[in-house]
Amino acid sequence: MKFHGIIGYAVSSEIRPGVWSDGITRRECYGDLIRNTRQYQSSDTLNDNLNISNEISIVADPWARDNFHLMRYIEFMGAKWKIINIEVQYPRLILTVGGVYNESATDVT
Description:
This protein has one helix and eight strands. By secondary structure, the protein is mostly beta strands.
């Protein structure tokens, strides 16, 4: 199954001399969905946590190749999902996706 979506990268930038802030830079990516699974995880809260254990193989453009360590989330099926593992198989990156990504107010740029 073909995939097209957005990846969020946590990029630090200097907002004034000596003061750095992390923000999210969004970039488009293309690739293939190579595994599509879901799992409910019991928790002490009212609702169980939903995790997906999808693997998405993306084409690693120069930006993705040089900054894969900054990847935080991928948008898939209308939600943002945490990237929990990245396997480098140049020219591709294999992303393993976990639970829902919780965006903080400081993440948006």
